[in-house]
Design goal:
Length: 474
């Protein structure tokens, strides 16, 4: 189904400020409305001006009373009581300009009587829907008369219909892990999960995940302003990596109205068939601290990982990261432990998990992994070592790990940007796909903690999202 939600101008005015920030709206459905056919799951939010008649003078709202002003996607259909339903719309984007439905220039006039009648029925209630045939007719009319909407529709459909990953294919496995790393970065920084999730396979198997990112529809209009003006010249810190011949690098930038900015850098330096796995590195510049997560895949059936020499060698390397850390001398530099490196033993329920959903798995600090490998609890029946949910009872889940990072309770101390850059390139050259997040802001450690503890999405500032142009494009 493609949903139509009709609101009065007053209802729109009451909600729009929140929608700009939260990208989220829950709308009750009329009792008895059929929700069994999923269809596109797109949503068009219509502003209905009651002063709608052929005799109305002037133009604008008086002449064309109903306008599509927002588009979104249905993430959930909720049960409310024994018979009632509601839909959760997320994400949402405001149309670049209102799209008139009524009048000789409106969308309805360009449709056949059958499709026009079906849309009128959907518009007659506070919420309704239309089937696939009418949606296709509506889509054709929208894109023909308002071609700027095609980017919005493509982006939302990519959010709703993530591609299947073939876990038997090395490139798909690498992209699946890199997407999870990108989604983890949005969680530890409180940026919208949708910003890095709309995706299509890149042209080459060797390219990083970000090479296939489908741009946010509001992005293109922001690039020139934000890069050349808002960022004081706009050259990303890692821009020189994109010019290197020994690595493949893509960069995407997220920034909010409070001045926080994260440069997401996705880099690899080895053929995908020989890649060792994926690293997520998050660096918080104001506190000069980073954490690393290295991905390991649990065996699908039993959710187990059989420890091998490769893992032990990789743990040895990760333990050397402590050399990049200094002794804490200020209160915000205190950490729960010296651990800055974690292993994520991950598993995916299927190849087409939600584009914003984190993979299920265990986050295990390297020091805890050492303890586990010396404990009888990980001994297998043939003398080898096995890691699993049952054997590693003190693991962290994704939300717990994110909270520790957001509060600055884990990570290195006093690590310079130069050390971070050298380390990131080193990891790529050693054979890892690297997803690196570099956050800058004017927040004090206390302000960061206050924001991290705030659970209300209404406190999240509006976000701009864009891929900065290469030096040749600037």
């Amino acid at each position: 189904m493609t949903y139509i939600v009709t609101l009065t101008p007053e209802q729109m005015a009451d909600n729009e400020d929140d929608w700009h920030v939260s990208e989220h709206f829950t709308k009750g459905l009329p009792t008895g409305l059929d929700t069994s056919d999923t269809g596109t799951r797109l949503v068009f939010l219509v502003r209905d001006n009651p002063a709608r008649s052929a005799s109305s003078g002037g133009n604008g709202l008086a002449e064309h009373g109903r306008f599509i002003t927002w588009v979104g996607s249905v993430q959930h259909i909720n049960t409310v009581g024994p018979v009632d339903r509601s839909i959760t719309i997320e994400p949402m984007r405001k149309c670049p300009k209102p799209v008139p439905l009524d009048g000789p220039d409106g969308i309805l006039a360009s449709l056949t009587s059958i499709h026009r009648g079906r849309l009128e029925r959907a518009l007659s209630e506070s919420a309704g829907h239309c089937g696939m045939e009418t949606w296709l007719a509506l889509q054709e009319a929208l894109v023909r008369r308002h071609p700027e909407l095609s980017r919005y529709i493509d982006w939302l459909l990519a959010q709703l219909n993530p591609l299947n990953f073939n876990v038997e294919d090395a490139a798909d496995r690498a992209w699946q892990e890199q997407r999870d790393a990108a989604q983890t970065l949005t969680r530890v920084t409180d940026f919208p999960h949708s910003a890095l999730s709309a995706w299509g396979r890149p042209a080459s198997r060797e390219e990083p995940y970000l090479a296939g990112l489908i741009p946010d529809p509001v992005e293109n209009s922001l690039i020139d302003h934000d890069v050349r003006v808002g960022l004081g010249g706009g050259t990303p810190l890692f821009d020189d990596w994109r010019q290197r011949s020994d690595v493949r690098c893509d960069i995407h930038v997220l920034e909010d109205s409070a001045g926080r900015r994260i440069e997401v850098v996705n880099v690899n330096a080895t053929p995908v068939e020989s890649r060792l796995g994926t690293d997520m590195i998050y660096y918080h510049h104001p506190t000069h601290s980073f954490v690393l997560v290295q991905y390991k895949r649990l065996e699908a059936r039993h959710k187990e990982y059989r420890v091998n020499k490769q893992l032990l060698d990789q743990m040895n390397r990760l333990e050397q990261v402590s050399q990049l850390s200094s002794k804490p001398t200020r209160s915000h530099e205190w950490r729960l432990s010296p651990d800055a490196c974690f292993l994520k033993f991950a598993h995916w329920r299927n190849g087409a998990a939600s584009s914003t959903e984190l993979a299920h798995g265990m986050y295990i600090p390297v020091s805890y992994a050492r303890v586990l490998l010396e404990d009888d609890c990980t001994l297998g029946p043939r003398g080898g070592r096995i890691l699993s949910y049952e054997r590693a009872v003190s693991y962290l889940v994704g939300s717990e790990f994110a909270e520790l990072v957001k509060l600055g309770r884990v990570g290195t101390v006093g690590t310079s940007v130069e050390q971070l850059r050298d380390f990131g390139l080193q990891r790529a050259r050693e054979g890892y796909s690297v997803m690196l997040g570099f956050e800058t802001s004017e927040e004090t450690p206390r302000e960061r903690a206050v924001r991290a503890r705030s659970r209300s999405s209404k406190k999240r500032p509006k976000v701009n999202s864009y891929a900065p142009p290469t030096s040749q494009q600037q």
